[in-house]
Structures are given as C-alpha cells and as structure tokens.
UniProtKB/TrEMBL annotation:
Active site, per annotation: H185, H285
Note describing how the cofactor binds: Binds 1 Mg(2+) ion per subunit.
Protein name (record): D-galactonate dehydratase
Chain positions of site Increases basicity of active site His: D258
Alphabetized SMART domains for the sequence: MR_MLE
Chain residues that bind Mg(2+): D183, E209, E235
Natural source organism: Sodalis ligni
Function: Catalyzes the dehydration of D-galactonate to 2-keto-3-deoxy-D-galactonate.
Amino acid sequence: MKVTKLTTYRLPPRWMFLKVETDEGITGWGEPVIEGRARTVEAAVHELSEYVIGQDPARINDIWSTLYRGGFYRGGPILMSAIAGIDQALWDIKGKALGVPVYQLLGGLVRDKIKAYSWVGGDRPADVIAGMKKLTEIGFDTFKLNGCEEMGLIDNSRKIDAAVAVAAQVREAMGNAIEFGLDFHGRVNAPMAKLLIKELEPYRPLFIEEPVLAEQAEYYPRLAAQTAIPIAAGERMFSRYEFKRVLANGGLAIAQPDLSHAGGITECLKIASMAEAYDVALAPHCPLGPIALASCLHVDFVSYNAVLQEQSMGIHYNQGAELLDYVINKDDFKMTDGYFYPLTKPGLGVEINEELVIERSKNAGDWRNPVWRYPDGAVAEW
Ligand SMILES: O=C(O)[C@H](O)[C@@H](O)[C@@H](O)[C@H](O)CO
Ligand SMILES: [Mg+2]
C-alpha cells in the first residue's frame, strides 16, 4: 500500500482535518492544528507531505522519525502538530487495513471506560454553578474552569479574592459531590501563583493546570512543594524531550499532552509511559474536535496511568460547530455517567461526514484567541 494524497480542511469552529488517501482505497483522518495558527500548520502538513506521499503507511515509526528528524530542525507547536495529524491518520489507516480499532494494535484495553470532564464558565468564569448543575444531570461530576482572569506579575487582593470567590461558590453550592480543576491558563506568574494556590487550598480543586507558563516549568517543583493540590500541565509541551525534563525535575502530578500538538499517538504513548514511570497521571488535553478526541481515547484505553479525558462538548470555543457535527457515528462517542467507552470500529473509530467537511471548509474563517491587555496597556497572558 502507498500513500497517494494529503488533503487539509480548515473548519469551523477552529479545527483542521487531514485526509490521507492510499492506492488501495483506504483513507485515514487526522486533526493537525494549533488553535489560531491553522494556516501555518496547514502549510507545515503540505511541506511534510513530501516525506509521506509514496510511502508505505504501515511504516508509522519510520515516517514519524523522518518527519521529526529528517528536517534537522525539530519540535515546537507547528511541526509537532503537523506530525500529530499525519500520525493519527496513519494509525487510522493501519487499523482500517487490519480491521481492528487502534487500541487493539497497542496491546488492548487496560480499562473498560475513562472518566470525562467538561469545561464550564468560559474565559471569565463568573456563574459556573448553573453550568455544573446542568451537566451533573447527565452524569458529569468533574469539571474544569479558568482559575482567574488576567493576573499581573504582582497583582492586588481584589484579583485574588475574585478568583478565590469562584472556587468558594462552587464548593458552597456543590459540596464534594463534584470535583473541579482550575486552569490558570498560563495567565499567572510565579510570584502570584504561590499566593493564589495558597488561598485556593481550602476549596481543594482537583488540580491546578498550567499554574505558570510551560516555559517556567522549573517552578513546578517549587509550587508543588508548597501545596497538596496536584499540579497539571502539558498542553504546551510538544515532545517526550520536553516532558523528560519536567518529569525528572518533579512537581508535575498530571501530564496533559495534546494528541494534536505533541506528535500524535506515537509520541503521546511514549509520554504516557514516561509519566507512568514517575507516578504521574495522564489526562490528555483536548479542547478540539472528534479526531483529536478519538486519538486521546485510544491512548487512554491502553495507558494504565490515564485518569481523566478532556472533551470539548459545549466548550466556550465551539462557536459555529459542536464536537460531533462532522461525525456520522455520533453514538459511539456517547458519554454515560460522565464516562467514554472504547471506540471499537476499525482504525480511530471516527466516521467523518466528508461531504459536510468539504462544504463547511469553504468558509472556515480564521479563529484567533483574544489579545488581552493589562490596565497599563501591556499585553496580558490570555
Ligand atoms: O485546558 C484547555 O482546554 C486549554 O487551556 C485551552 O483553553 C487552550 O488550549 C485553548 O484551546 C487555546 O486556544
Ligand atoms: Mg489548559
């Protein structure tokens, strides 16, 4: 079998799908994208396609190594997201060619279901309680919300109190019937992270995500030393080499590689195993679409340390399209009591409505995250 063609489709709300065709009629789908830089990743996918077209799609490891090592320069969000989407599609082809779901190719199920969590509250979490109550009715008991709004390098008590008030309201309204992670979203610098985490301790968030930016990962062990709340990070770490340093330095309790940013299934499996060796849990990052989610689920179902799966149903970013809009086999993604079950169809287990993809890709738009500014006019981390 040989790869014959790579076609990319930028799509609402802010996704990109990749279709990889072969000379035996088997097609694989991937989801290479960096939110807000879809066109850049698209160019990278087509530049890398020179190393994929004409190749045997079964040789995933060799193609992956060629894409990663063959261009001298390596790593980073753009190239690793392009590789991720190609890798996902190659695993999809392999599973379809052999008639088995990808998790069977990776040693089979290590669990029967994986707990999902849902975003509530949007960019500026105010009233998250209503959102949580609605989702508990369909079985969710685990949520994530932004831990704060903009936070200056040194900020004032009112900002800290506003952030803590949200966590206090959640615990007040929901008790310990639910759990919630707080995503600092990289908005907080080391000095304020120490203070904010200390003030949040009494409300026992399930984890604090990106307490500081990934480029400040050396603070993770120092922050972990001051708090019992698990530190989570990984969505802006793009290879096992980035995770290696962070795992070795300690402090990380939950690794959150993104299956569409960190080299795909091939690389994230390695990251999952490395994390397990350090007793670090796996909770793949996934605010994206169905192919990214399916790729996460196959890794979750073969990774002993997988504990939670992010998914974008109802996420504040999904304006213009919802998680399963482009999926034919929607029922396979049904969450029961807040859990996902294995995708058992061959390959990744996502049947893409190609006609709708082609239609909606005609005016996809270019999603951009907001650029926030501090009161003094300087750019703030969003
Ligand atoms: O945890 C999450 O889902 C992420 O922090 C998410 O909010 C961002 O990755 C966003 O997608 C960037 O555009
Ligand atoms: Mg996050």
